[in-house]
Amino acid sequence: MKLVLARHGESAGNVAQVFRGPDSQHDGLTDAGHAQARALGRHLATLALPGPRVYASTYRRAQDTAQAVAGALGTDVTVLDGVHEVDCGAWVGRAYADMRTHRGEVLGPDGCPAFPGGESGPGVAARFRAALTPLLAPGRTPIVVSHGFALSAALIDLLGADPAAAWADDRYHHGNAAYTLLSRENGAWHVETLAAQG
């Protein structure tokens, strides 16, 4: 069994380098983001994945990216609730860089990010896993187009990584239109490709 987790292409919020929160759900891709999405689709088509099914979060930038991927694979897109980006609560409008310079403001007692008035890393991972589980079946490859924070949370959970250490070293960071390919054997997920550009 295989699984692809991909980040959407570049959006205006990415260019501005600020947290936008749920208000960004209608933000589309930039011209560069559309080009990244097409490149991701072309690349995934070369992998000859078994039974590809394309899913996207409820946010437009993920759906636009997924449409380009689905077009390259000759399939459709299903919108999937639960794999959307983190609700950053009181951090809406804050710079991405603040996650490094003011990290203590968003660290929960478990060492994982927990945005005041928003969601935590483990909370995002739990809803992501709940959405993902019904998609998993032998002979099919779900391709889930999601978001940066959500992908990190999901991978920490799926791979059983130490959450505090993984968040601290940012090992599962995905650039725009980057993807990770996982395979499942003996009940455990294994990385074949991590955060690669399409």
TrEMBL record:
EC number(s) in its UniProt entry? 5.4.2.12
Q: Which EC class heads this enzyme's classification?
A: isomerase
| One Pfam family from the record | His_Phos_1
UniProt KW Isomerase keyword: yes
Q: Which GO terms describe its cellular component?
A: cytoplasm
Q: Which key words are in the record?
A: Glycolysis, Isomerase
> Could you tell me which SUPFAM superfamilies the record lists for this protein?
Phosphoglycerate mutase-like (SSF53254)
Which residues does substrate bind? 7-14, 61
Membrane-spanning regions, if any? none
Q: Name one GO molecular function term.
A: phosphatase activity
Show the InterPro entries listed in the entry: His_Pase_superF_clade-1, His_PPase_superfam, PG/BPGM_mutase_AS, PGM_Phosphatase
What is the protein name stated in its UniProt record?
Phosphoglycerate mutase
* Species, as recorded: Deinococcus metalli
